[in-house]
Design goal:
Blueprint lengths: L1 E2 L2 E2 L4 H13 L2 H18 L8 H9 L15 H14 L5 H12 L4 H4 L4 H15 L8 H10 L5 H15 L9 H8 L8 H6 L6
Helix pairs in contact: 1-2, 1-3, 2-3, 2-7, 3-5, 3-7, 4-5, 5-7, 9-10
């Protein structure tokens, strides 16, 4: 199996993950996870310890389930997505160890400063996503491959669409937006949004010293 001329693992698990992401996500979000996956594959080439291709596929393809109507819950969206992926893997009798790697990869995909120090699958999940969202690492991917990925999975106004999606998440459950990337989005785009400040929380803690 290949996308945009890039060979990908052709397993039932990977195909099921793609089907789940496609059926759960709006087109712009599905295209984002697919581009992120293909970028993660290309950016994994030549790394000292490469990721397991199947686990990387599942991690990246399912990383934004927590932003979908089907899987949004009461937790921060990364955890909702990780929990959904864990349920998906448990239903297919995937080992606890492999399931935990996928859970970590999804739960930490917005926490680059931690994800890059975890297992290769966790690190490269974040790297592929960062390439699609911020353009990090695109200078290491040949232009013809970038064009092929964008042609097969066009961006569909991704910047505006994801901004709208994240703002809606903040309005729906603001208590989950204080210790992740949603904080920045809320401060800039959501009227009336106010996040607690760590310095204030520390100063007002109920201790005398």
């Amino acid at each position: 199996m290949n996308f945009s001329g890039i060979k990908v693992p052709d397993t039932g698990l990977v195909r099921d993950a793609i089907d789940l992401a496609r059926s759960s996500s709006e087109p712009y979000l599905f295209n984002h996870v697919m581009r992120s996956w293909l970028f993660s594959i290309l950016l994994s080439e030549g790394v000292e310890v490469g990721p397991d291709a199947e686990l990387l596929a599942v991690s990246v393809v399912l990383h934004d389930l927590g932003l979908t109507d089907r899987y949004i819950g009461e937790n921060r969206f990364e955890v909702d997505g990780a929990n959904a992926a864990r349920t998906f893997l448990k239903s297919r009798s995937i080992s606890t160890q492999k399931t935990q790697i996928v859970w970590d990869a999804i739960a930490l995909h917005t926490t680059r400063s931690i994800a890059l120090h975890k297992e290769p699958e966790v690190a490269m999940t974040q790297v592929g996503i960062a390439a699609d969202v911020f353009g990090l690492g695109l200078d290491r991917i040949p232009s013809d491959k970038q064009r092929g990925i964008l042609a097969e999975f066009p961006r569909l106004a991704f910047k505006n669409q994801i901004k709208t999606c994240l703002c809606n998440i903040i309005r729906r459950k603001p208590e989950t937006s204080f210790d992740n990337v949603l904080r920045d989005v809320g401060i800039r785009y959501v009227d009336g949004y106010k996040a607690p400040n760590f310095a204030d929380l520390l100063a007002s803690s109920p201790f005398s010293e």
